[in-house]
């Protein structure tokens, strides 16, 4: 294919996952900067959130003094927010050839609502298929650390939000679910040892990202 007919490479969808306080937000800027240095246009976003509607839903779900709601309502609100986010932000960015970098996505729903709230994998899988069709992240960086480390860091950051008030057993389930999902899909997940210092975490993230980018078809051509 010559220069004039060369197609724009497709956008890629990268998610960052992990339990409370492991350092997802702290590493989002680092990842976005690294990608931009590779001349990639990055759309940085988060869940729940990313659109005015989804950010309003986030308030209902995450705020410490949020009104009580049932577990099923929580799951449905998360997918309502995800539909808005996908249709208005994620899919348009990907179709422009941008890379979407999202702080949490549906792996969080499998962990928190599917297993943490015990609503089951099947309910999440059904909603995932309905709302997302075949769309899944291309790469998921799983920041993994013992629950005690994550909660200690979250506590140093400030008051616990609605989810952070759950029990240690709840967070243990979240961690185990993420690890099981990473083991089941090794081609998509990269596990990062988030118990290390921030510099070490970022060095591991950079190595994984560089390796992943090198094996993309457009990098090989
Ligand atoms: N590797 C690290 N070592 C020590 N402290 C860290 C590390 N990474 C992040 N922190 C600190 O831990 C706290 C939690 O980090 P951060 O908010 O990035 O986590 P998070 O995974 O986004 O949390 P949450 O899911 O609860 O929003 C922050 O105060 C941050 O500065
Ligand atoms: C996407 C998603 C998120 N959650 C929970 C997990 C966290 O406690 C909050 C988001 O807060 P953070 O500061 O951005 O970590 O929402 C969830 O339960 N299910 C989900 O699908």
TrEMBL record:
ATP binds at residues 18-25. Belongs to the thymidylate kinase family. The gene is tmk. Phosphorylation of dTMP to form dTDP in both de novo and salvage pathways of dTTP synthesis. Its EC number is 2.7.4.9. InterPro entries: P-loop_NTPase (IPR027417), Thymidylate_kin-like_dom (IPR039430), Thymidylate_kinase (IPR018094). GO terms for molecular function: dTMP kinase activity. This is Thymidylate kinase. Pfam families: Thymidylate_kin (PF02223). It comes from Natronospira proteinivora. Keywords: ATP-binding, Kinase, Nucleotide biosynthesis, Nucleotide-binding, Transferase.
């Amino acid at each position: 294919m010559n220069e004039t007919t060369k197609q724009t490479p497709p956008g890629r969808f990268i998610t960052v996952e992990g339990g409370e306080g492991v350092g997802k937000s702290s590493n989002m800027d680092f990842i976005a900067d690294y990608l931009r240095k590779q001349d990639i246009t990055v759309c940085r976003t988060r869940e729940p959130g990313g659109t005015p509607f989804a950010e309003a839903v986030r308030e209902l779900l995450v705020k410490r003094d949020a009104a009580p709601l049932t577990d099923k309502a929580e799951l449905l609100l998360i997918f309502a927010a995800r539909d808005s986010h996908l249709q208005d932000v994620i899919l348009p960015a990907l179709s422009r050839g941008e890379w979407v970098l999202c702080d949490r996505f549906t792996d969080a729903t499998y962990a928190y609502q599917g297993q943490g709230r015990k609503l089951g994998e099947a309910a999440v899988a059904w909603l995932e298929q309905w709302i997302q069709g075949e769309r899944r992240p291309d790469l998921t960086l799983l920041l993994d650390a013992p629950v005690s480390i994550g909660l200690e860091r979250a506590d140093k950051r400030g008051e616990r939000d609605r989810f952070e008030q759950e029990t240690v057993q709840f967070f243990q389930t979240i961690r185990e679910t993420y690890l099981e999902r990473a083991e089941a899909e090794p081609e998509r997940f990269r596990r990062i040892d988030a118990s290390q210092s921030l510099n070490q975490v970022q060095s591991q993230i950079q190595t994984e990202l560089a390796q992943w980018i090198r094996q993309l078809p457009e990098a090989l051509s």
